[in-house]
């Protein structure tokens, strides 16, 4: 049922990684469809590397003409639909946002990412206005340092959290080998080989904390809408 899109007009902000990590985590307990709506197909390529987790299916979008049908059909089939968008503003992204119950805006703690995150939140708001409803959105900080943050990183996080009407997810997608390794090995975090990749347990704990928070946001929004 819930549809979650991952959008940020800045390339490399962590959209595909966040979408994949959250999709795998949700697929531990529910059926999930992950729609790869990036023409470069990073997630379809991931799914070709090795078998995805049993309850996760990846489909490639046919583009802006078909995305709305693809989302509707997927939402009728499974409890969670996630949509990974390409790193630029597009009609396709607007259509996907308009069909979403939550737009997650991944952003690194860097000036350009934060600016693009604010632009993207504006695009979500406009898509909501056109659709005559409020589309919930939340920023997810990505590739953050597990230990001590730099002053710039801290400042950017504080700035985003201080903006009125902007929700920043408390948990952050920390910079970890395990998250990057997913795209070269295929499968989910639990399928990674601990002899080859460090810190898998910590990555799983991180993924699970983020997913729980995402579910809590969806529940709150559902409650508010009811
Ligand atoms: N938490 C993380 N830990 C380690 N590496 C990460 C993490 N998040 C992202 N990366 C790496 O950063 C790069 C960009 O991430 P990703 O592909 O998820 O960004 P994107 O927003 O989807 O990019 P694009 O706009 O090109 O689609 C990738 O090489 C990815 O492996
Ligand atoms: Mg991507």
Automatic annotation (TrEMBL):
Record flagged with keyword Transport: no
InterPro entries registered for this protein in UniProt: DNA_Partitioning_ATPase, P-loop_NTPase, VirC1
Gene3D superfamilies in UniProt: P-loop containing nucleotide triphosphate hydrolases
CDD domains named among the record's database cross-references: ParAB_family (cd02042)
Signal sequence extent: none
Keywords on record: Plasmid
Name of the molecule in the record: ParA
